[in-house]
Specification:
Strand order of the largest sheet: 6-7-8-3-9-10
Number of strands: 12
CATH class: Alpha Beta
Shape: globular
Number of helices: 11
CATH superfamily: P-loop containing nucleotide triphosphate hydrolases
Oligomer: single chain
Number of domains: 1
Structural class: alpha/beta
Distance between the termini: 28 Å
CATH architecture: 3-Layer(aba) Sandwich
Helix content: 25-40%
Order of helices and strands: EEEHEEHEHHHHEHEHEEHHEEH
CATH topology: Rossmann fold
Strand content: 25-35%
């Protein structure tokens, strides 16, 4: 069903500042034989929310793991291209070194420490900080202000909280590291629509009020394009379309294939021959 909620207000315009993250024509191979990404390029401006869109298996999560250098744990390698953060190559850095530079990934599926309480989970995000307990306590209070539900559940074991609360916990834990950029993987997965709206609203607030830049991978194209400033659409490991989020929302191909609405009314994806889709992207 096409979401008819209003788009974010005029403040959600595309940022015009410096480029924070730049991915240049990268290829990724798993197990030395499986080519997953095929020349992916994208840029994230400082202070921006950039959406990486596409269906399951399009290469969204692989792109994020390429940036956060988590590929090697899955026997994957960036074999071509470059990844720059603030103009410096980061491909040889460890994930821990990237966190220290201000880049942190929130994994798909949330991955909370189930046996720890919500508050203990949040505090693990501050493990590498060296600015003192007072600053950490202030940031914990900041996280609770953005996620009041976590304050209520602070003493509960994370494994016994709901999926929405675990997603909030994972984002809050990332915020405790004082990131400049968060790579957010499938934040809406498995959540009710009301919770999805709530979490994306908090992401927007963190972006506008705390200055955190986001690159988010998301299958829910509709909600992502309402909150993002710019979007890239991936298919089969390639970027097939990109542009300001407002323009993508109005694009007839995006409407038809990702929002479920064609120029002549609602259509089912199954009613459209796949070759038409491929031909459009490549034209």
């Amino acid at each position: 069903m096409l979401d008819t909620a209003p788009a974010p207000d005029a403040k959600a315009t595309e940022p015009q500042g410096e480029t924070l993250l730049e991915v240049n024509n990268i290829e990724v191979i798993y197990n030395h034989v499986i080519l997953v990404l095929k020349g992916v390029s994208l840029a994230v401006p400082k202070g921006g929310i950039t959406a990486l869109l596409g269906g399951n298996g399009a290469g969204k999560s692989t792109t994020l793991k390429s940036i956060s250098n988590l590929l090697r744990s899955e026997r994957g390698d960036v074999t071509k291209g470059s990844i720059l953060y603030k103009g410096e190559r980061i491909q040889e850095l460890t994930p821990a070194e990237l966190v220290n530079r201000g880049v942190i990934q929130v994994m798909e599926g949330r991955h909370c420490f189930e046996h720890l309480t919500v508050e203990e989970n949040l505090l693990t995000g501050s493990y590498t900080r060296r600015d003192g307990s007072r600053a950490i306590k202030d940031d914990l209070e900041m996280v609770y202000n953005y996620f009041p539900r976590l304050r209520e559940r602070r003493g509960s074991q994370a494994g016994y909280t709901s999926g929405g609360e675990q997603q909030m916990c994972a984002i809050g834990r990332a915020m405790m590291a004082r990131p400049e950029m968060i790579l957010l993987d499938e934040p809406s997965m498995g959540l009710a629509p009301q919770l999805v709206e709530e979490i994306f609203g908090i992401v927007k607030s963190l972006n506008e009020e705390q200055g955190v830049s986001f690159l988010l991978a998301e299958q829910n194209t509709n909600v992502a394009l309402r909150f993002a400033h710019y979007g890239y659409i991936l298919e089969s490991g390639r970027v097939v379309m990109d542009g300001p989020a407002k323009e993508l929302r109005e694009n007839p191909d995006v409407k038809e294939f990702y929002l479920g609405m064609g120029d002549e009314g609602r259509k089912s994806f199954r009613d459209v021959r796949s070759y038409r889709r491929r031909k459009r992207w490549l034209s």
